[in-house]
Known about the structure:
Keywords: Membrane, Transmembrane, Transmembrane helix. The chain has 49 residues and is an all-alpha fold. The protein contains two helices and no strands.
Amino acid sequence: xxxxxxxxxxxxxxxxxxxxxxxxxxxxxxxxxxxxxxxxxxxxxxxxx
Length: 49
């Protein structure tokens, strides 16, 4: 079963919405953690010099 068939199937819009929200939250979480890691690494480098 592909993602396209899941999203195009009219079974449960609630489940589709839930999956979409979960994907967005995972994406945001990953982005924020990457930004946080960059900020902390940048601060450490600046502190060393």
